[in-house]
Design brief:
Elements lengths: L3 E6 L12 E6 L4 E6 L2 H7 L3 H11 L15 E4 L15 E6 L6 E6 L3 H7 L4 E5 L6 E6 L4 E6 L7 H12 L14 E5 L12 E7 L4 E7 L4 H7 L2 E7 L13 H18 L6 H4 L4 H7 L23 H7 L21 E5 L11 E4 L3 H6 L9 H14 L3 H16 L18 H13 L3 H6 L3 H11 L4 H10 L2 E2 L2 E2 L9 H8 L13 H6 L6 H21 L4 H4 L16 H15 L7 H25 L5 H4 L12 H6 L1 H12 L3 H5 L3 H27 L10 H7 L2 H11 L5
Parallel strand pairs: 2-7, 8-13
Antiparallel strand pairs: 1-9, 2-3, 4-5, 4-7, 5-6, 8-9, 10-11, 10-13, 11-12, 14-15, 16-17
Helix pairs in contact: 1-2, 2-22, 6-21, 11-13, 17-19, 19-22, 19-27, 21-22, 25-27
C-alpha cells in the first residue's frame, strides 16, 4: 500500500492558444507542491519549452554562489511549448529537460519524444520544476483527470523503465465501465535505470503506449546526465495522466488554419519521404550509409570515416530495414499522427548477456547515433550486438552517445597501452570486443567495480585520473587529450568532423557541449556543399543555432523540418534553410498563438529567429553565472575533431592531406611529398588549429560576443532584452566587457 507524502488539488487550467500559463513547482525537501502563474512578460520573452525551463532554473537558483549538480538546489525542469501537443502536426510531441549537468557543470538541455510534455500541459501545466532531494524513493503523479498532484512513496518499485511504465500504466489507467476500454494512451511515465545511480551520463526514459502492440515504448532525454540528477533526487518516476486530446484541445487562435498547415506538411511527407530518406521505413538508420560514403562515419574512436574493409556496411539501413518490425499498420511514430513516423523498434530480440539473457524483448531503436557510437566507433559491426547495447543502455538509464564515445576512448587507450587488464579490472577493451563491452555496461549498473565507476564519470574525469595516476609521459598526456572526444565535459555525438570546419564550430561553439542538435551542419557542409566559403560557415553558426533553438522552445521535433524537403527545395535561393518549411512553422505558430508573424517571408523568418535568439543568448549568460561561458570554454577542442592526431591517420588519407597542405603552402604536391611525414603532419595541425581560432573570432563577432572574454556585449544585450531582464543578467556580464 503506497502512501502519499504530499498532495495538492487544483482547478485544471484549459489550454488557451497553446498555453495554460501555469507551472508546477515541487520541493522534495519540504514535500511542498505549488501551482505557479507564469507572467505574461515571461511568456512573451521565453516562449515555452527550453525557454521556460531556463527561466525557472534562473529564478530558483541562489544568486550568491554556484550550485553543483548534486546539490538539492539544482532544479530539474521539464516543459513542452505552445506548439507541443498539437495533434496531427509532424513532430509536435516533444518535451525539453534541463538541469545542471554532472558532466559539464553547466545547463544541459535535452529534447525528447514520448508524450509526457503534452500530457502534462493538457493536465494543466506548461512546465515542471523539481528541487530538493526526497528522503526516500518517490513517484510524482500529475493527474489531469482527478485535478490532483501528489508525491507518493515508491520503495517497492523496480528501477527498470519498461517494467515501471507497465506497472504505472496499469495502476493509474481509467477504465470506461460501459466499453471496458482504458486510457493508457493518455499516460506517460518518466524514469531511468540503476545505471544512472552510478553514472554521470544517466538518461531519462519517456514512455508512450503502443495500442497496436499493447506495450510501452520509450524515448530518451539522453544527453548530459539528466537521469543522474533524477536519481540523485531520489525520484523513481514521474507520471502524467491527461484528459483525451484533439487539435481543438489547444484552443488555437485559428483552428482551420492550424489544421490546414498540418495537413499540408503531413501530405508532403507522405508523398516525398519514399523518394528521399525513407524515414517512415528506416528512421535515422538511413544515415550510416551516407556518412560512410562521404567518409564521415566515426570508426575506431573517430580515427576514420568508415571501415577500410567495408565492415561498416553491415550497419547500413538495408540491414536495419530487415530487422525493424512493425504492426503492418504503417505507423510507428512517437507522437500522435506524426507523418514522419520514424520511431522504429525491433521485436523478438533475445539478449545474450545480462539479466534479460535468454528472454524475448522489444527494443526501441536503434537511432543513427547509437548505431555509429556503439557500433562502428567501437569496431562492432554486428547490428544485433548494437541492438543489445542499445537495449541495456535504455534499461540501465545510460546515454548511448556518451557510452559509445567513452568506450571508444577507452578502447584506443587500451590499444596504445595506457590501459591494460590490470587497470580495467580484467576487461579486455580491444576493438570490437562485444562481450567485454557488455561486461563494462553491466558493471556500471551494479555499481561495485572501481574502473567501471571511474569510466561512468565520463571521458573528462578519466583523462584527469589517467594523468594523475598512471605516470604518463608528456606525450601520452597530450595524446589522451587529443583523442578524448569530449568538450566542456560532454562526449561528442557521432559525426567525423575533420574535414568540416562548420561542424567543428557546430560542436566547439555549442552552449552545452558537442551535441549535434544545436548546429547539425555536417550534412549541409559535406554532403550538399551548401556552405563552401568560410563566410558561409560562420554565418551558418549563427543562424542555425538560433533556428534550431526555436524547436526547443516550441515543443517540436526538428526532423520534419529538413529530413523530408519540398521537391523544389534545391531550386530555392537558400536550400539549406528549407524556406517553405520555415513559412509552415510561422503559419502554425500564428494559427495557434494568434501572434502576428509579419507579412513577407523575410519578416516571418526574422520573427522566428528573434524569439529564439533571445533564449539562446540568455543560456550563454547562464553559463557565465555558473562559472563558464567564456572563450576558454569554447577553445581547446580535441584535435581529433579537427585533424589527424596520429601518423596512421595522416597516412590513411595521405593524398587528401598532402593536397591540402600544398594549397596552403603554395607548393606542388610533389614538393610536399618530399617533406618528412612528421613535418607534414605538424604543419597540418598548425593550420587547422589556426583556422578554428579564426572561425571562433568571426562567429563571436557575428553573435555579438566579446572577443577576449567570449561574453555577450552589453550593447548586444540591450538590443535583445527588455529592461527587466537586463537588470537580471547585467551583474554577471558587466565585469567581463573590454
Amino acid at each position: 500500500m503506497t502512501k502519499n507524502l504530499a498532495e495538492m488539488s487544483y482547478k485544471r487550467q484549459e489550454v488557451q492558444k497553446g498555453y495554460t500559463d501555469k507551472a508546477l513547482h515541487i520541493d522534495l525537501d519540504k514535500l511542498k507542491i505549488e501551482e505557479l502563474t507564469i507572467p505574461k512578460k515571461v511568456r512573451e520573452l521565453f516562449i515555452g519549452g527550453k525557454g521556460y525551463d531556463l527561466w525557472l532554473m534562473w529564478e530558483s537558483l541562489p544568486k550568491d554562489r554556484i550550485v553543483k549538480w548534486n546539490e538539492p538546489e539544482n532544479p530539474l525542469c521539464i516543459a513542452s511549448g505552445p506548439l507541443g501537443g498539437t495533434t496531427g502536426y509532424p513532430g509536435a510531441g516533444k518535451s525539453i529537460v534541463t538541469a545542471i549537468s554532472p558532466l559539464t557543470d553547466i545547463i544541459i538541455d535535452s529534447n525528447v519524444g514520448g508524450f509526457f510534455g503534452p500530457w502534462m500541459k493538457y493536465s494543466g501545466f506548461d512546465a515542471l520544476r523539481i528541487v530538493g532531494k526526497a528522503k526516500e524513493p518517490v513517484v510524482i503523479v500529475i493527474d489531469g483527470l482527478e485535478e490532483k498532484v501528489w508525491v507518493e512513496s515508491a520503495s517497492d518499485l523496480p528501477n527498470d523503465s519498461y517494467k515501471l511504465a507497465k506497472m504505472l500504466n496499469e495502476k493509474y489507467k481509467k477504465v470506461d465501465e460501459e466499453t471496458g476500454k482504458d486510457d493508457k494512451l493518455y499516460i506517460s511515465v518518466v524514469s531511468t535505470g540503476k545505471g544512472a545511480d552510478h553514472s554521470y551520463f544517466g538518461c531519462l526514459n519517456f514512455s508512450w503506449w503502443d495500442n497496436s502492440r499493447k506495450l510501452n515504448h520509450i524515448k530518451q532525454a539522453g544527453r548530459g546526465g539528466t537521469g543522474s540528477v533524477f536519481r540523485n533526487k531520489n525520484i523513481v518516476a514521474i507520471v502524467a495522466h491527461s484528459p483525451s486530446v484533439k487539435l481543438e484541445s489547444q484552443n488555437p487562435d485559428n483552428t482551420e488554419e492550424a489544421r490546414a498547415v498540418g495537413r499540408k506538411h503531413s501530405s508532403e511527407i507522405l508523398q516525398l519521404d519514399p523518394k528521399q530518406n525513407r524515414m517512415r521505413v528506416l528512421g535515422t538508420a538511413h544515415l550510416p550509409s551516407i556518412m560512410s560514403e562521404f567518409d564521415l562515419l566515426p570508426t575506431y574512436n573517430f580515427k576514420f570515416g568508415k571501415d577500410e574493409n567495408g565492415k561498416d556496411k553491415n550497419l547500413w539501413g538495408d540491414k536495419f530495414e530487415k530487422i525493424f518490425t512493425n504492426t503492418g499498420k504503417g505507423w510507428d511514430g512517437c507522437w500522435r499522427g506524426c507523418a514522419i513516423n520514424c520511431s522504429h523498434c525491433v521485436e523478438g530480440v533475445i539478449p545474450k548477456t545480462g539479466p534479460y539473457k535468454g528472454q524475448t524483448v522489444c527494443v526501441d531503436g536503434p537511432e543513427y547515433e547509437t548505431i555509429a557510437g556503439c557500433g562502428s566507433n567501437l569496431g562492432i559491426f554486428d547490428p544485433l550486438e548494437v541492438i543489445e547495447i542499445n537495449f541495456y543502455c535504455d534499461i540501465y538509464g545510460l546515454d548511448t552517445i556518451s557510452f559509445g564515445t567513452a568506450t571508444a576512448f577507452t578502447m584506443e587507450c587500451y590499444a596504445t597501452g595506457i590501459l591494460n587488464k590490470e587497470r580495467t579490472n580484467g576487461l579486455e577493451l580491444n576493438w570490437g570486443n562485444f562481450a567485454h563491452t557488455m561486461e563494462l555496461l553491466h558493471r556500471i549498473a551494479e555499481g561495485k567495480d572501481e574502473f567501471a565507476l571511474l569510466y561512468a564519470k565520463g571521458i573528462k574525469k578519466m583523462q584527469e585520473y589517467f594523468k594523475a595516476n598512471y605516470g604518463l609521459t608528456a606525450e601520452q598526456k597530450q595524446f589522451i587529450q587529443d583523442i578524448g572526444m569530449q568538450h566542456k565535459g560532454l562526449e561528442f555525438s557521432e559525426y567525423m568532423t575533420k574535414e568540416s570546419l562548420a561542424q567543428q564550430g557546430g560542436y566547439g561553439l555549442t552552449l552545452k557541449g558537442p551535441q549535434h542538435d544545436e548546429a547539425w551542419l555536417i550534412f549541409l557542409d559535406m554532403v550538399h556543399n551548401y556552405m563552401p566559403t568560410f563566410e558561409n560557415k560562420a554565418n551558418a553558426l549563427c543562424w542555425f543555432p538560433y533556428w534550431r533553438t526555436w524547436f526547443a522552445i516550441q515543443g517540436l521535433c526538428k526532423l520534419p523540418w529538413n529530413d523530408v524537403v519540398p521537391a523544389d527545395n534545391k531550386q530555392t535561393t537558400e536550400p539549406h534553410k528549407v524556406p517553405e518549411h520555415i513559412q509552415n512553422y510561422a503559419d502554425l505558430y500564428q494559427s495557434i498563438t494568434g501572434v502576428d508573424m509579419g507579412k513577407t517571408p523575410k519578416e516571418r523568418e526574422d520573427s522566428l529567429i528573434t524569439m529564439s535568439e533571445r533564449v539562446y543568448q540568455f543560456q550563454r549568460v547562464f553559463q557565465v553565472r555558473l562559472g563558464h561561458g567564456r572563450r576558454i570554454d569554447d577553445s581547446n577542442i580535441p584535435y581529433r575533431s579537427a585533424g589527424p592526431v596520429t601518423l596512421e591517420e595522416y597516412k590513411s588519407r595521405v593524398d587528401r592531406y598532402d593536397g591540402q597542405l600544398a594549397e596552403i603552402l603554395g607548393k606542388s604536391v610533389e614538393e610536399i611529398k618530399t617533406m618528412p611525414l612528421e613535418e607534414r603532419h605538424k604543419l597540418t595541425r598548425k593550420d587547422r588549429e589556426e583556422r578554428y581560432n579564426k572561425l571562433q573570432d568571426t562567429v563571436y563577432e557575428k553573435r555579438g560576443w566579446n572577443h577576449k572574454s567570449g561574453v555577450i556585449k552589453l550593447e548586444k544585450a540591450k538590443k535583445l532584452w527588455p529592461d527587466w531582464l537586463l537588470q537580471e543578467v547585467t551583474p554577471f556580464i558587466k565585469d567581463l566587457q573590454d
